[in-house]
Protein: Branched-chain amino acid ABC transporter permease
Amino acid sequence: MSTTATIKTKKEMNLWPLALFIGGGIIIALGATGSINKYIQTVIMFIGINVILSASLNVVNGYMGEFSCGHGGFMLVGAYVSSILSVLLFTNSKWLGHPILPPSTAVFLFPVIIIIGGLVAAVAGLLVAIPSFKTRDDYLAIITIAANFIFVSLVNNLEFVGGSRGFMGMKGTVFAMEDVFKAPYMLFWTLTFCSLAVFLIKRLMRSTFGKGISAIRYDEISAEIMSVNTNHMKLVAFMFSSGLAGIAGGLFAHVMGFINPASFSIMKSTEALVMVYLGGMGSLSGSVLSAIIFTILLEAMRPLQILKWVLIPLMLILLMQFRPEGLMGNKELTDKFPRLKRFFTRSSM
Structure:
């Protein structure tokens, strides 16, 4: 090796987060000027929410190699916590009374309540992670499905949040923000949290800690022999994944303006699983692409009503038959198309 090659070090600087933010900024600007209508904005917001949901589940099912099936439950926790805080703090509700804070403060505090919902969902993930330390595969799936049913049944029986009738009033927070300054706030925050979630997952899995999480997928016993604290890794991965699902739930609640426990049943967890396996296990690019494809597919099949839930599982069966590794496998877009690296990375000395 030459002296020059020894002295020179090549440092890659990722530019894709900047590209993501610029793309989101363009979409928000188009929404603010009315260049894209409300329906298209809503579809884009659902894409962003599904990207968070799919990518967060991929941390556990893809990178860590576990088999979680109850992601909808963590989404429910985040949705209800952020919704209650939103109505309690910023709106006039017949259930919770007058707002505690001036409604105009929602412009600044809205992301705080979404993050609080995510933190509470992370604590719920902790409750699932602890009994999962000694379980894998089918047993972990049973635990997470049971957790999903527990969360849904619990909220079904809480009358102060509407029980099975559901909870509403979150649109009042959105209207309060728009009264201060007319702008597509939900589009902005959905794309912001989506970009942040993708960025955090990428940074986590490229870190030394993330390598420890990936080691569990290949061989948990070997990872323990190599001094990887697998219980700690599982704990962090579950909490991180469920926290992001809670953020997705909070955004979903405010986009819809109404939620009920049925919105987060096992069907919602199944949607997350479909997106993960469609995109590819352990592929962040795959999670993003599958969320985009799946959301657009759902909208295209909306006129078919219940029949779409026959066609979509059928498509998943065909995918498992002919391409079981998913669209991307465990690769990223830059692995499939090396020329993209020159656009998403920059070399510096």
